[in-house]
Amino acid sequence: MSKKIGLLTLPLISNYGGILQCLSLTFVLKKMGHDVTLIDIRPALNPTRRFLLYILARFPFQNIRGIRERFIKEKQNKKTIKKYINKHTKKIENLNQLKNESKTLVLDAMIVGSDQVWRYDYINNDMYSAYFLDFYEGEKCKKISYAASFGVDVWKHEDKRQLTKSLLKQFDAISVREDTGVDICRNEFSIESVVHVLDPTMLDLSFYDDLLSEHSPNQDTGYLLKYILDEKETASVFSSIIKDKREIKSEKDIHDDNKYYTLAEWVQRFKNAEYVVTDSFHGMVFSIIFNKNFIAIGNKSRGLSRFISLLTLLGLKERLVYPEDINSGTDLTNILSNDIDYLRVNEIVEAWRKKSLNYLADSLR
Length: 365
What we know:
The protein has helices at residues 16-31, 47-58, 67-76, 78-84, 95-102, 120-123, 161-168, 179-189, 206-212, 232-246, 263-272, 281-289, 305-313, 333-337, 342-363, and strands at residues 4-8, 35-39, 109-112, 142-145, 174-176, 194-196, 224-227, 251-253, 275-278, 293-297, 320-321. The protein is of the alpha/beta class. The chain has two domains: 4-206 and 350-363, Rossmann fold, CATH 3.40.50; 214-341, Rossmann fold. The strands form three sheets. The protein has a five-stranded parallel sheet, sandwiched between helices. Helix 2 (47-58) crosses helix 3. The longest helix has 22 residues, at 342-363. It is globular. It starts with a strand and ends with a helix.
């Protein structure tokens, strides 16, 4: 039976993984026959900061603090986002707007997720409680989380404990993306009924066939792909070792080739690669989706639990390396020389895919 669903996630601006997880989840929900409306929260900025960002976004030949890059990415991906998300609220900047806008919605279910929607550092503002769905009061509306992530493996925010616990108690179904999320819900908030599920990007691979169908494929293949957010020096060292051992002649660096990728182009880069070096969670996920050999560099500043959780689940924890491994004498020969057994990995993914889809379907009944 078709349901009217509100979907809340972090703002869809320029983060490839963040956008693709939302589009993937929307794709799956629509494929199930549901009607989806994105709740478009964009926390307000003070006027001075808003003006400064406006100028920096539009001033050419610079990219101070990545502001212009984010602006260009958001602009060029609007068409793709609109293709998959054809219903959304107006941009909501504060709680009053959110409450007023929510009164116009008639929903059967509200879903929060996925990605780091419950990471305190990302939602520590006036909209905090919105990410725990306190704003919608429809009597028959179910409150559901899908693959929500705390982004860390421990909860350290005592001032928000009781509020968060009381809001989570109001959910009809809770699922999280990491095993540490299950522990946090149980140990910190006394929520026992929690399901561990896959990131939405891994739910339905036909989404990528559809995404790439209107994109002229880049015929360039067989390269080592680097998608690095922070650990650039470490990645260069690992890349050199891999290229030498694997006899890979060419290298592509998503951040250093003077190009702002569309979502389809970004996905295509992973699909065509021979080997991937990344310190991004979704960079790792897309390496797995397209069955690529890869090295994931532990990015401690962005949180390790999501890397460790997925890699442990798939029996690939040895693929996670750290900057200190370069100088510690750690023998990486076995990792760098051997191929991943994707026959085994894909069997595990398929089992978890069924579990995750079943959770989603059951929670919406």
